[in-house]
Amino acid sequence: MRAAWYEGFGPARQVLNLGEMEDPKPGAGEVLVRLHASGINPSDVKLRAGARPGATMAFPRIVPHSDGAGVVVALGDGVDAFSEGDRVWVANAGWQRAFGTAAELVALPADLVAPLPESTSFAEGACLGIPALTAWYALAGDGPIEGQTVLVTGGAGSVGRYACQMAGLLGARVITTVSSGEKAAHSGAADWINYRTEDVAARIMAMTGGAGVDRVVDVDFAANQATSLAVLKPGGVIASYASASVMRPELDFYGLMFRDITLRMLIVYQLQGAQRARGMAQISAWLRAGVLDHAVVPGGGLDDVAAAHEMVEAGEKLGTVVLEF
Asked: Model pTM?
């Protein structure tokens, strides 16, 4: 099979290689997928760059990317949930494994694979994995949110955009923060606030009649902690999946304690067992119903992997950069 890989950290054009690798074979409990699309997430490019503190190569050679979509071509022993020819999307392919989705084939555990309906393209299916599961986990990982008001910070981001859609599908009211009208339109949320030009806390309290919000799905805990405290109802939840502005933020312990706030610092890689199955099943059900909208940013083919990584690093795209092959 053709694949992209790196054998050391560094800039995309310096360390990413393209060539032939031996075809993988599915082991017991695994599915072999012929990939047609590979989604590139910020975590994929950060890992390739060695940007994580104390990062070391977990394997001598790494095929990057966690997300993708394609067709089942073989089944390992004990797999009965899929058949050859099934269209599928995959998640977490590159987590603690040497072989991600930047390749024509990937063998991975069957519980990381979910059905992809004909109405969803492979490129769209490659957008799901990390962004869609993170959004679902932040919203529904600890119970129903029907009737609640949810603040999604960064609603134009890949996670935020799915969170805006899913919160509505789960019966909640959605308010999001963005940095421009263009990004507001991209988020799809009817209620939005430009955090660069408006007092976010004051606007939220006005929009909710002084009641505030029940949950914050948060893209940057450190940057938004004060605002979250100002707008959360007592007993509310901050479900945060990043804190890029300050990686070791100072915690306003008593501010949070006296409002009985629950902090959920979540990472989709640790979504396990029945809960991960529930999330993937819900996303697949929404796909069948045709109620999720996807933001595909074309990244070319496998030969364009370095340029696609640079596109993600530039941070100007709206959506998920996807390679198709």
From this structure: 0.96
